[in-house]
Amino acid sequence: xxxxxxxxxxxxxxxxxxxxxxxxLSLVNGAIWAGWYGPIQILLxxxxxxxxxxxTAKESVLAWVTGAGAAVSMxxxxxxxxxxxxxxxxxxxxxxxxxxxxxxxxxxxVLLAGARSxxxxxxxxxxxxxxxxxxFAAVTAALPDRVxxxxxxxxxxxxxxxxILGVMAGTGLATAGGGLAGGYRACAAFAVLGALPxxxxxxxxxxxxxxxxxxxxxxxxxxxxxSPRRHPDLAWAWLTRFLINLGNxxxxxxxxxxxxxxxxxxxxxxxxxxxxxxxxxxxxxxVVVGGIxxxxxxxxxxxxxxxxxIMAAATGLLAGWQTWTGAxxxxxxxxxxxxxxxxxxxxxxxEVLPAAxxxxxxxxxxxxxxxxxxVAAPALAAPLVHHLGGYRVLYAVAAAIGLVGALLVRRIxxxx
Length: 416
Fold this sequence. Notes:
It is built from 15 helices and no strands. By secondary structure, it is an all-alpha fold. The protein is globular and about 60 Å long. It starts with a helix and ends in an 8-residue tail after the last helix. Mean pLDDT is 90; it is low at 1-7.
């Protein structure tokens, strides 16, 4: 293994990536999100209603299962990121984990389809989160590994577009799969097929064994802590992402039940698909444009702030305008804000990373701000819906949390 490989694996990239590489990475990213959101949007809610014991609310079962899975995700993403940073395979640092994670996720989805109890359902969903997070940690790290800073907004935009297309694909597959088993299997197959072009067509950067960070379990665990005092910009960026994602998670968690129980939609599953598609259309209209615009201006914070305010306003509509028309408008507006946020926030995060040798681990820690809301949202949402005012209060609280998150981005000093 040549010494020249070390700078390529660890140095700040300067050569712009091509369209084929961006498209392949975006496809595998979308495939992972399909594996997550087919279950989250449709299948887990239906399965919770089917398996809930007598006297136990389906909302509570769904909260337990998704909360357990999100807890696994919080640990898995940085842990597998740290292992990825230390991988010296001839296939590179990231590709082996993409292969293992996607294959394992497909198996876990198939097993989840056969769950016949709440406990089995929870174990299956935790398996999906464990494996797909291994792949996701590697995919996310490929951005700072290979993309120069001046192109990260644009590539982040395409990754964001793939994310929402993956959510739409997962939702569509779950709806059209012909039942729980068919929906889970369709999502599993899509996850595997979506990863193939990147794995087969693009060579990963190889880390020489002599440049590998300390690999012992103590060193790995210690490395998961990033001091907010030493890295305040990373801390503020993490908190911004966490709060905006928490507001979004609160808005989406009970969407199927909101359509069925509050709006009385005759086909709530189809309603979720319509809202997801509308959200996706408006998101696709802003996600790439927002990233490119951010690259050209050299600024990140104004885009994240504006996107967060728009998302908070959209969630507020669900609280104040509880009609199908209001839900359609909220979905469209949420897509506009989330599109810009997805692309620009990812670029911003890569610019506050402490060290090149720990990119995947550090991004895994940052990605806890994506998964922790999935734990916190059920804990907040269930009492809000059942005891503190119902869905109107739920969406008002979600809007307030997202707005606070957007305002905190102004505390970041090292990024414009």
